[in-house]
Design brief:
By secondary structure, the protein is an all-beta fold. It is built from no helices and 27 strands. The protein has strands spanning 13-16, 22-24, 33-34, 42-45, 52-54, 57-58, 75-77, 84-87, 96-97, 105-108, 112-115, 118-119, 134-146, 155-156, 161-173, 177-178, 195-202, 205-206, 214-215, 223-225, 233-234, 238-240, 252-255, 261-263, 273-275, 282-285, 292-294. The strands form 3 sheets. The protein has an 18-stranded parallel sheet that branches.
Length: 296
Amino acid sequence: TGTSARPNRLYGVSMINARTSTIGGAAPELRNVISGNGSTGVNLTNGSSNNLVQGNYIGLNRLGTARLGNGLHGVAGSVGSLLNSFGGFTAASRNVISGNGADGMNFTGVSASIRGNYIGTDASGTVDIGNAGRGIFMVGFSDTLIGAPNGGQNVISGNQAGVTVQSGQQLDISNNFIGVNASNSGPLGNDTHGISITGTAIGSAIGTGVHQNVISANGGDGIVLGAFSTATAVIGNVIGGAASLGNALNGILISGSSSNIIGSATLTTNGNVISGNGASGIAVVAPATANQIRRN
C-alpha cells in the first residue's frame, strides 16, 4: 500500500560502479517510493557516475504526507561517485527526501547537481517532516551545485541543520529556500544553522548577484563560515527578514575563516539583506582575517 514499512535490511537501491542509469523519472507514474529500509534509501558508491535520480519519495509514504523513514540517510554517495544529478526543474522531477533517520543527503568525495528537491518537508513543501540529521552534508566535494534558477531551487527546511559542508572546492549554493516553506510565505526552520561551511572548503559561493537564497527562521545562525574555510562569496541573499523569519542567532557568523566576501564585489551586483536575526547581523570572531563586508 506504500503506507507502512516492510523494510529491506540494507538499502532501498544500491548502485556500485553503476553509470548512466535513471532512478524514477519526470512523471508521477515513474515515481519510486524508497522508504522504510534498514539503512540508506539510495546508495551510490565505487564510482557510480552520471546517474539521474528524480521524481522519487525517499523517506515518506506513497502520498508524500507522512514519515516512513529509512534507517540511515535518504541518499548517500561516496568513493568517487561523480556527476550524478538529483531532481530537476519541474515539480514532477522533484525528489522529496524527508523523514530519514540521519541526513537527507550525505556525500563524501563526490561531485553532484542537486536541484529542485524538497528536503525535510512533505510533498507540498509546507509541513515539517525533517530528516533527523542534516538536510545535505558534504565532505571532500568538488564542482557541486545546490540549487539553480528557473525552478531549480531546493527547499531545505525542517531538518536538524540545513546544509553542512566540510572540506572541498568549488561549491555553488544558490536559489534555495533554507528554513522557510516552498512558497517563502512562512517559517519552517532547521533546528540549528541554515548553512555551515567549515574545514578546508575553498572557493564556495552562497548566492550570486542575481539569484539569491532565502536563509531564514533557523534555530541557530543563518550562515556559519567556520575554521579553515576560505574564499567564500556570500552575495545577494536574504538572511532573516521580518521578526518572525529571523534566524535565532546571527545572520552570518565568521569564526576563524578568512578571505571571504560578504556582499557585492562590484558596484553592479547586489549585496545581502540581513535583518531580524536574534543576535548580530554579521559577527566576526578571531582568528578571522582579510574578510570584506560591503554593499549589504
